[in-house]
Design a protein that fits this description.
- By secondary structure, the protein is an all-alpha fold.
- It has 23 helices and 2 strands.
- It has a two-stranded antiparallel ribbon.
- Strand 1 and strand 2 form a beta hairpin.
- Helix 6 packs parallel to helix 9 and helix 14 crosses helix 15.
- The N terminus is likely disordered.
């Protein structure tokens, strides 16, 4: 999540310039060939990277022919193991059969036991209807507004009253009378911003207030009106279709802080100057508006923006408002391509849940008698499910936003299995949150000048923001710990000095293997099996020669995977693509 850290990736086998945040405004070329597999982010194009010297492609070398044989042998086995474990004929099948639901693919049952994805899966038809209604009413409002708008007005600020009205109605539909609680918090936060303006009390009160609200509603499950006074108990009757409003409030809290901090910096005239014209995505959050744009209507339209309200992606207030003032061109072709990606992702997740019941196996701890390889594959595919169950909703809401004319950051840049660097992984995973962390926490605390302190503080905040639990706190501290070896290695063996040496790529691959193992350990603890489950897994792996032999074999396979990932990023660099992850 250390988005502005000036650190080259381990696969950059040459010296590279520091990342250019404010690159010249130009239309980047579209990725070609293999580079098209990764979602396109125009701001990742760098003419400097394209102009640099690159090693010749290794795709057709004898070395990579060996890697292809390993890859084509091992990957099918990785799929076969959890598929075989999910067979009704397997002895452990009865332990989790009750957690499976009727499916729709080839008569197989579906592992719908993950509550988070089950909620999205069940509510998807309603969300599609809500998105369709929003886009339809927005179109009608736009047609009506054309009658009164000046022909010279090219902004979309006229949409603000519609956005506020629709958002308010949606808020009450989702949360019932609890929408009053949300509106109260929003009003107090806005008052803090306006009363403190550019004084140092603004960030202090903003962070304290939002932190206390988040803690209070988490501990009290959002509060009941009856807890305030018995005469208000009737207000608890109307709960809406999504009564647990406090579950997604942590996303809303980020927008509240963003507005107050952006307003604070605007009052102090901190930021980049407005050069006029269409603005690229990277400088948009850093270019302040004149103070009249930090008004209550714009604030409400931003915080409650329907496509992004429930789950994000997260945008800075400055970015959102610039896109209203100077609309970003979003082509139909790119939107259709993104729709195709979304459909491919949701069908992939459905296939995994129909043929691999790893979530139910994990929840029921139905892994007794599993070998080390089988146990590790259950853990690996659980991580894949975690990635996909987050990717699918985020891409749905981003697609909805793109159709509405607002382009938020892409949340998942790469496949989870296409990561080898701890730093790069956190730049690509929940990217909009990473950008938010970078702007509002990492840089204000000193960034690379206080790296160890900021890394620990950032991941402690991230863990507590996700959930006030020891498991996630342990995850945050483990991630902080596991980032340190990579930082030390980059300092001791920098690419700028050793990148041209023949051994550097292979040493980097060894480091990548260790990094991948550490990332999997931290995420299995934080989001899958917890500390107790991790202890059991490590015991099974290290308690026998079979487990140790499997670990050595797995490390060899990860070494091959790292080499392929290195070359994939070199392929991107040849086209001027620098995703920094």
């Amino acid at each position: 999540m250390l988005g502005d850290a000036v650190v080259t990736m381990p696969t950059d086998l040459r010296a590279t310039a520091a990342f250019e945040l404010d690159s010249p405004d130009q239309t980047p070329p579209k990725p070609k060939g293999l580079a098209r597999l990764t979602v396109d982010i125009p701001s990742s194009y760098s003419p400097q990277v394209r102009a640099a010297l690159h090693p010749r492609p290794r795709w057709r070398t004898p070395e990579f022919m060996v890697y292809y044989v390993v890859f084509c042998t091992v990957v099918p086995v990785m799929v076969w193991i959890p598929y075989r474990l999910s067979s009704p004929s397997h002895p452990n099948y009865p332990f989790y059969e009750g957690w499976l639901s009727p499916g729709w693919i080839f008569g197989r049952k579906v592992d719908n036991s993950d509550a988070q994805y089950r909620s999205f899966r069940t509510g998807l038809p309603s969300l599609v209807l809500l998105a369709t209604a929003f886009l339809g009413f927005k179109h009608l409002y736009t047609l009506a507004a054309r009658q009164t708008r000046s022909a010279s007005d090219t902004s979309n600020l006229y949409q603000v009253p519609f956005l506020v009205a629709f958002s308010t109605l949606m808020l009450f539909g989702l949360h019932g009378t609890s929408a009053l609680k949300v509106l109260l918090v929003l009003s107090v936060n806005y008052a803090i911003a306006k009363f403190t303006a550019g004084s140092k009390a603004n960030p202090v009160l903003t962070w304290v207030f939002n932190g206390l609200v988040l803690f209070a509603i988490e501990r009290n499950s959002g509060f009941k009106f009856s807890a305030i006074h018995s005469s208000l108990s009737s207000l608890d009757a109307w709960e809406g279709v999504y009564p647990r409003w406090w579950i997604s409030f942590n996303i809303t809290m980020l927008r509240l802080i963003s507005f107050n901090m952006d307003y604070y910096w605007a009052c102090r005239r901190v930021g980049l100057p407005d050069t006029g014209g269409l603005m690229p995505d990277k400088p948009r959050p850093r270019v302040p508006h004149s103070l009249e744009f930090y008004c209550f209507l714009n604030y409400m339209a931003y915080v409650l923006y329907p496509p992004l309200y429930i789950a994000g992606p997260i945008m800075a207030f400055n970015d959102f408002t610039w896109q209203l003032r100077r609309p970003v061109p979003i082509s139909s072709r790119s939107t259709l391509g993104y729709l195709a990606r979304f459909l491919a992702c949701i069908l992939t997740l459905e296939a995994v849940l129909h043929f691999m019941y790893v979530v139910a196996i994990k929840d029921r701890k139905a892994w007794v008698g599993y070998s080390a390889a089988e146990l590790c594959m259950v853990g690996f595919w659980n991580l894949i499910v975690v990635w996909l169950k987050l990717l699918v909703p985020w891409r749905f809401f981003r697609l909805w936003s793109l159709l509405a004319g607002i382009d938020p950051p892409e949340n998942m840049v790469r496949c989870m299995a296409n990561n080898y660097s701890t730093l790069g992984f956190w730049r690509a995973w929940h990217r909009s949150y990473n950008l938010w962390i970078t702007r509002y926490i990492y840089i204000p605390l000193g960034g690379t000048r206080n790296r160890v302190f900021t890394v620990v503080l950032v991941f402690t905040f991230v863990a507590l923001w996700h959930d006030l639990s020891f498991r996630l706190l342990a995850w945050g501290w483990l991630v902080s710990l596991f980032i340190m070896p990579e930082i030390v290695a980059r300092y001791l063996v920098p690419a700028s000095k050793y990148g041209a040496r023949p051994w550097y790529r292979h040493v980097g691959a060894v480091g990548a293997v260790l990094s991948i193992l550490m990332m999997m350990t931290a995420n299995l603890i934080g989001f899958v099996i917890g500390t107790d489950g991790m202890k059991y897994m490590l015991h099974q792996v290290f308690d026998s020669w079979e487990g140790i032999r499997f670990l050595l074999f797995a490390c060899a396979c990860l070494f091959v995977a790292a080499q392929i990932m290195f070359e994939y990023r070199e392929e991107e660099a040849r086209q001027g693509i620098s995703r920094r992850c």
